[in-house]
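Changelog-adjacent note: as of this version, every example in the card shows the full chain rather than a window. The one below runs 127 residues end to end.
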Amino acid sequence: PTDLHVFDTWANRWVQPTVLGETRAPKPRSGASSCVVGTRWFISGGGDGAEARPETHALECRDARAGVFQWTLINSASKPEDKEAAGKEKASMVGFRAKSGDFLVMFGGFGGFGCSGLTRVMRVSTR
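Full-length structure tokens:
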């Protein structure tokens, strides 16, 4: 199960909300990049000390007031064409909203063969 804890500022206490899509939640990792775009929190890249975790996940928070959150897998990085958009360990990531959709921009990181100088842009929604 997802170990998600939310601080409710109205009730001034920590709660464990309902989490849907737990099979799509990210596996434990360190060195991941994250950012918020709109009502979604994105987590990309990182690793667990034994292997890289290049996939990108999103936690939908639009129903946070009702205490309901949902994980989705955005990019599994399992296909060759998805690898370049995949997250790296310790990369920088920012999100932005444009007329044509929501995007994640990632720079650098560690890809197993040294530091990367690549800039990667991933569209995560359309408008």
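Structural remarks: The radius of gyration is 15 Å.
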